[in-house]
Design a protein that fits this description.
414 residues, alpha+beta, Rossmann fold, Dna Ligase, domain 1, D-amino Acid Aminotransferase, Chain A, domain 1, 4 domains, 6-stranded antiparallel sheet, 5-stranded parallel sheet, 12 helices, 23 strands, 28% helix, 28% strand, binds adenosine monophosphate, binds glycine
């Protein structure tokens, strides 16, 4: 029997905990630091994500068989390297391999070197260079600050003024900052393809669609993700195979060739354009909220998948054929400033799966971060799953939260 330690504190980690818990070979799940909404399936532990020594000590004490890391931050700080050096079994990419996500510039260089399709780009190091590029490259254009910004360092500028403002905001003062990537705007259907990877082995999961813009009809600023569904009817199996053949398997192979083999969950943020599949970004972990709609459909025990992959055994995945739709409830004001600590009423009436992305508990659950809850339903049709979610959300009384009204509704018409 396995005892699992999950690192992280959001909805993704809640979904991971619930998924591990369903496995017949898992007897206990801990989450560090977790949030109070996860106590239905896991014990939360008050150890910070960057306290590697504390985590290692806890893992030894509790005889943890597997540490699974949810978010990018500890991965890019080298949690896998450090815990592994202390003899702990941990699944995820090393610090070097995590650069695929932590440095947009690194990802671009490797994609160009190995002919992996992506938007054309220019990397700049100063404000002057950036403004020079904007003179010759007109909107729509995309501007990405390097480093981990949780999806919020990206501006998709539809006119020249927005592009100019984005550059001004990045270079607000004289501090030295990482390179900025300015890239071609890609038009098409976006989707997320996640895979379990070890070296050149890439085992694809079903795909998901995330909606990153804050407001209905994909308007407003970029967020970490406001809702998702899986599978994605508007993307064909040929397009998924193209994504595997041109992006996912080649990047895994490229990392091996570069001497930094990838092990963990690799996330391709992809666009189906008129010229074929192109890569928007790689993440080195499960997506959030994609995980909340993907893992409820997974029908093979997650611990077995990971151990079999790590031990070079055969792995085959199986997903529920129904559609899952998840809608995020976020704090009013997010992704900008928002107030914390407002009571959320009616949660006990909700019959759907509810994943806690950021709640605290004091006389009831309260909002404690930008994204707060993800409500998920499954149904034979996507429209059916979406309608069920929206009917359940009606029961939640939380004037300090907002959500999108169009997740999973008429996906082919947008
Ligand atoms: P990223 O953090 O790179 O995933 O960017 C956040 C979001 O911005 C993506 O999910 C896309 O919706 C959008 N985006 C990023 N790059 C591009 C691009 N080159 N063309 C169009 N949209 C993009
Ligand atoms: N939902 C997108 C991400 O996890 O980066």
């Amino acid at each position: 029997m396995n005892t699992i330690l999950i690192i992280g504190s959001g909805g993704r980690e809640h979904a991971l905990a619930r998924c591990f818990r369903r496995s017949p070979t898992v007897e206990m799940v801990y989450v560090a630091p977790g949030n109070p909404g996860m106590n239905d399936v896991a014990e939360t532990i008050d150890i910070k994500m960057d306290d590697f020594e504390g985590l290692a000590q806890f893992a030894k004490e509790k005889k943890i068989n597997l540490v699974f890391v949810g978010p990018e931050a500890p991965l890019s700080l080298g949690i896998v390297d450090e815990l592994r050096a202390l003899g702990i079994c941990i699944f995820g990419p090393t610090k070097k391999a995590a650069q695929l996500e932590s440095s947009k510039n690194f990802a671009k260089i490797i994609m160009n070197k190995y002919d992996i399709p992506t938007a054309k780009h220019i990397t700049v190091n100063t404000k002057e260079e950036a403004l020079e590029v904007l003179k010759t490259h007109k909107a729509p254009i995309v501007i990405k600050a390097d480093g981990l910004m949780a999806g919020k360092g990206v501006t998709v500028a539809m006119d020249d003024k927005d592009a100019y403002v984005a550059i001004q905001e990045i270079y607000t003062d004289d501090q030295v900052i990482s390179p900025v990537v300015i890239e071609e705007y890609l038009e098409g259907e976006e989707f997320s393809l996640m895979a379990f990877v070890k070296g050149e082995r890439v085992i694809a999961m079903d795909i998901a669609r995330d909606h990153k813009r804050a407001y209905d009809n994909d308007k407003g600023p970029n967020t970490g993700g406001m809702g998702a569904y899986s599978p994605v009817p508007q993307i064909s199996s040929d397009q998924i195979e193209e994504a595997m053949a041109k992006v996912m398997r080649p990047i895994a192979k490229a990392m091996v060739t570069e001497g930094i083999p990838f092990e963990g969950v690799l996330y391709g943020g992809l666009m189906a354009t008129k010229e074929g599949i192109k890569t928007i970004e790689f993440n080195v972990r499960f997506g959030d909220p994609e995980t909340e709609v993907l893992l409820p459909r997974l029908q093979v025990p997650l611990d077995q998948i990971i151990f079999d992959l790590m031990n070079d055994k055969e792995v085959s995945l199986k997903f529920d054929e129904r559609f899952a739709c998840g809608v995020v409830l976020a704090s009013v004001g997010y992704p900008k400033a928002f107030e914390k600590g407002h009571l959320i009423l009616g949660l006990d009436l909700v019959e759907s799966q509810v994943y806690h992305m950021g709640t605290s508990f004091q006389d009831g659950f309260r909002n404690n971060s930008g994204r707060v809850l993800c409500v998920v339903e499954l149904s034979e049709t996507l429209q059916g799953a979406a309608e069920k979610v929206y009917a359940q959300i009606e029961k939640i009384e939380a004037p300090h939260l907002f959500h999108r009204h169009d997740i999973g509704i008429n996906p082919n018409k947008r």
